[in-house]
Specification:
CATH topology of the largest domain: TIM Barrel
Oligomer: single chain
Shape: globular
Strand content: 25-35%
Helix content: 10-25%
Distance between the termini: 39 Å
Largest sheet: 8 strands, mixed
Number of domains: 2
Length: about 600
């Protein structure tokens, strides 16, 4: 995961429209049911007010019920991905039947935003999220390399205060990193006494403590320290029989759960999810930029032998009855939200699990392990988070990919799936972007009056800084006489690329794209303190804003920039135009006026 990508994605946090609060009544009739643990050959399931009203309904359908025939189909609990980094594409998992994600590290504002929507019952349009928020690591350790400053610790005495601070931020559980890197690239890592203190601090507050590990020794050490679960397995061309037996015995004795994360370990081994890439039904829901993540891998050369140890350990853990959870580590190269869980299920079966056990690993098992309320089962009173597929995935695991319908809190996702398919098809045709925005006759997009900062289209002008990502920069806007605004920016160190300034959100809602292909030139007037500034453009599918610099001299001057010079930005999908100070720390002041988008 790249935190620079997170920064761009978080510009869109909190901008999703609220979903309708009430759900229709549904009856899925005469369907095979996998309830999270067992298979029922034929049942009818009644959904009402976003809940499972009756998991074994008998009798005539209620008058208000919408009936879905289940013959030849299987109804499953909504799938749960037990290891993601949810910093973007928050609506994508639901399209593939993943109704809950367990997040191992994301930005606190995003975590809080989704938690608030869940609490209000307004999260029907995307997967629910249970997050660790910020992970526990040392200065310079794994998790600090992504550009966002995070709180770290170095000694056991700091553990309780660190844990309490995370819980105050809204973390659902505590995620701890034991990652020394490789022989070629060693990195600092928490020592064992501090890991143990963190686990005990979490347990003292009644919270789970899970550990990221990268090798067998750390996996054993984490379990011995009392970890509730390991959120990775380790790879390797081989594992000694004695080591395998000892590790499995320890995991069973400590009653720990394990998330193997085949998807990301295969990427590290240079392997791609070719089964997903070859499935037209799945790729029809992935835009080019989303597909691109799946087409890559961390390893430069395929080394399938590196998965030997992972498969052997997974098979032995399953045979010993150790809980296994399906998790992808989506957000990393070689993975993608939602769709990779179907690959993960296949990988678990190939490693030795039965299809039914693999399905439990993506439904009831994670719900139990992570204490996730009212999900992972088809039972009376549970959330109506469901997946209906053609065929029988309890016999053929790849039947999970033949999706008929997904319900989230009793609301079907078919309209969302259809809309995404249409976007993908439109993109493939080369006709991207919505209706072309008609530019004002004079091109002016800055209507800076005495009382407000207005615009002729789009969501308008807003102050922008790294503060919402944990940075320390700030900005104040002061309206001036005429069509001008003064930007007083304080750019502070502590963020990988600190900034503060003024941004124009081009879409109807902040974060939405607008087709500004009619615009060829950005022109504005500026004066200021003589320092260098940047114009940043962001478009849908672009992970990092594209920047061009200008100088704010003491006297008013006009600046013109060709949009074509912002390489990689498609004006048909433009989401933001920003005028920023940074990244050099310091105080900045400039005035900007008469911002125009011109057709020549």
């Amino acid at each position: 995961m790249a935190m620079q990508k997170m920064r761009a994605a978080l510009l869109l946090v909190g901008l999703a429209a609220a979903w309708p609060a009430l759900a229709d009544t549904w009856l899925i009739r005469d369907v095979r049911v996998f309830d999270g643990e067992r298979v029922h050959a034929r049942r009818s399931v009644l959904l009402e007010d976003g809940k499972i009203r009756d998991a074994d309904f008998k009798g005539k359908p209620p008058a208000a019920a919408k009936v879905v025939e289940g013959k030849g189909r299987t109804l499953l609990p909504g799938l749960i991905d037990s290891h993601v980094h949810a910093y973007r594409h928050l609506d994508l998992p639901l399209l593939f039947g993943v109704t809950t994600q367990v997040d191992m590290f994301t930005a606190v504002p995003l975590m809080r935003e989704v938690s608030e929507r869940m609490a209000k019952g307004e999260n029907q349009g995307q997967a629910d999220l249970f997050s660790a928020g910020t992970l526990a690591t040392v200065p310079g350790g794994h998790g600090t390399e992504y550009g966002m400053p995070i709180p770290t610790l170095t000694k056991p005495e700091e553990a309780q205060a660190w844990v309490d601070a995370r819980l105050a931020e809204g973390s659902y559980f505590i995620k701890i990193v034991m990652e020394p890197g490789s022989a070629a690239h060693k990195i600092p890592s928490l020592d064992l006494p501090t890991v143990k203190a963190l686990i005990e601090a979490a347990h003292r507050r009644g919270k789970l403590a899970v550990v990221h590990i990268g090798n067998l020794d750390d996996a054993r050490a984490a379990l011995e320290a009392g970890a509730d679960g390991l959120v990775h397995l380790f790879d390797g061309a081989a594992i000694a029989a004695a080591d395998l037996e000892a590790f499995v015995r320890l995991a069973r004795e400590r009653k720990a759960f394990i998330v193997p994360t085949f998807s990301v370990l295969e990427s590290i081994a240079g392997l791609r999810e070719d089964d997903v890439l070859a499935d037209a039904g799945l790729t029809a829901l992935l835009k080019k930029e989303q597909l691109l993540a799946l087409q890559g891998s961390y390893g430069k050369q395929p080394k399938p032998e590196e998965m030997t140890a992972t498969k052997a350990v997974t098979a032995a853990l399953y045979k010993a009855g150790v809980p296994l959870l399906a998790g992808t580590d989506a957000g990393n190269t070689g993975t993608q939200y939602g769709v990779s869980l179907h690959h993960e299920l296949r990988a678990l079966v190939q490693a030795g699990l039965t299809p039914q056990a693999a399905l439990a690993a993506a439904t009831s098992a994670p719900a139990k392990a992570f204490r996730l309320p009212q999900r992972g089962r088809i039972a009376n009173g549970y959330k109506a988070d469901l997946l209906l597929v053609e065929g029988d995935p309890t016999q053929d695991i790849q039947a999970t990919r033949r999706i008929v319908e997904v319900w989230k809190d009793g609301t079907p996702a078919s309209a969302l799936r259809k809309a995404q398919q249409e976007k993908v098809a439109l993109e493939a045709s080369g006709k991207v972007g919505g209706e072309v925005v008609a530019l004002p006759a004079d091109g002016r997009i800055s209507l800076f009056g005495k009382d407000k900062l207005a615009s002729p289209f789009g969501a308008g002008w807003v102050p922008s800084s790294d503060g919402f990502l944990g940075g320390k920069s700030s900005v104040q806007l002061q309206r001036q006489e005429g069509d001008a605004v003064r930007v007083n920016a304080s750019v502070a160190p502590g963020f990988a690329y600190p900034w503060a300034g003024l941004a124009f959100m081009t879409g109807v809602r902040p974060g939405e794209a607008a087709n500004l292909s009619a615009a060829k030139v950005l022109r504005f007037r500026v004066r200021g303190d003589g320092k260098n500034y940047g114009v940043s453009l962001l478009a849908e599918g672009v992970q990092i804003p594209v920047n061009r610099s200008f100088t704010a001299a003491a006297e008013w001057q006009e600046v013109s920039m060709n949009l074509a010079d912002f390489k990689g930005i498609d004006a048909r999908l433009l989401t933001m135009i920003a005028f920023n100070a940074g990244p050099v720390p310091g105080d900045y002041q400039f005035e900007i006026a008469d911002v125009r988008l011109l057709d020549k």
